[in-house]
């Protein structure tokens, strides 16, 4: 019984912090042609300088694990853009006031938001062919985001995000 409760709690916690990823790619591209990459020189990620470095380190590790090397003369460029936003709250407590009586009725209701606002971060990765200047693969992630976390947690979160984003690259 304790194992079932533990698994249920782990499932609930992990589903709340899930990273959602959408992919799109050009079906006519031969992904085996792409063995080297680099980042756009003037890339504006929308992240802090430290988070940008953490994310680029995580991307480099994922690409190297796939046998794709960082080089000055790449087959493709990677562009990364992000934005953070407040997720709309969908929970509230209603406080009502009504009248009593035979034919008399009426009421006033006020919704009071419960809980703190949830922040989300969306990060888009574009892979652009260097010779053709053509987008051939794109991934967009959306995940919960907390500003006040330790550097270790930020690093782990961005490594997990990169692993999730690149788990389906190259497409089969």
Automatic annotation (TrEMBL):
<feature type="signal peptide">
    <location>
        <begin position="1"/>
        <end position="18"/>
    </location>
</feature>
<keyword id="KW-0732">Signal</keyword>
<feature type="domain" description="DUF4136">
    <location>
        <begin position="21"/>
        <end position="171"/>
    </location>
</feature>
<dbReference type="Pfam" id="PF13590">
    <property type="entry name" value="DUF4136"/>
</dbReference>
<protein>
    <recommendedName>
        <fullName>DUF4136 domain-containing protein</fullName>
    </recommendedName>
</protein>
<dbReference type="InterPro" id="IPR025411">
    <property type="entry name" value="DUF4136"/>
</dbReference>
């Amino acid at each position: 019984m304790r194992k079932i409760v533990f698994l249920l709690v782990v499932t609930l916690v992990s589903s709340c912090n899930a990273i959602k990823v959408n992919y799109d790619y050009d079906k006519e591209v031969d992904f085996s042609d792409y063995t080297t990459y680099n980042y756009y020189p003037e890339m504006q990620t929308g992240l802090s300088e430290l988070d940008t470095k953490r994310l680029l380190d995580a991307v480099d590790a994922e690409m190297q694990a796939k046998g794709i090397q960082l080089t000055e003369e790449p087959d493709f460029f990677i562009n990364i853009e992000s934005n953070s936003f407040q997720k709309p709250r969908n929970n509230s407590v209603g406080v009502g006031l009504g009248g009593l009586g035979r034919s008399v009725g009426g009421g006033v209701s006020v919704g009071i938001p419960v809980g703190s606002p949830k922040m989300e971060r969306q990060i888009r990765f574009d892979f652009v062919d260097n010779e053709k200047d053509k987008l051939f693969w794109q991934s967009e992630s959306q995940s919960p985001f907390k500003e006040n976390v330790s550097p270790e947690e930020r690093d782990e979160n961005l490594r997990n995000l990169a692993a999730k984003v690149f788990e389906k690259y190259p497409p089969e």
